[in-house]
Amino acid sequence: MSLMLVVTVLGWVGALAGLVAYAMVSRGRWSADSMAFQGTNMLAAGTLLTVAAANGIWPSAASNLAAILIGVNAVYTVVRAKKRAAKEAAAAAPVLAVVEDVTPVEDVTPVQVPDHVPADLADRMPAARPAVSYRAYAEAA
Hints:
Largest sheet: 2 strands, antiparallel
Distance between the termini: 70 Å
Low-confidence stretches: none
Mean pLDDT: 82
Structural class: mainly alpha
Order of helices and strands: HHHEHE
């Protein structure tokens, strides 16, 4: 298989990819700012750039290089906008705070030391803990 045959096949693949991207946007299946459209467009432009450069068709190579640069800029703009939107959504999201209803300390019965615990270890018993009757989750203002 010759190199020119490979370049020709690559050109047809690029042309077909460009047509698919155009059709998908025209039919409303993809939006112009979708990664699928931009990626397919850049792939098509890259393959067509290779074919044009291999055949010495420099105006076509230059226009495909411009299409790639436009696609890179569009992808950068889309990614930046999505990051900004995610950051704004995170900032606007309500924060949850845990509010515990704790029984007052005076209502807590002290820990009873079992009879089998030696007297010198009785002082090391865990302290009495207040009982938690429920947890409420509230949105912070």
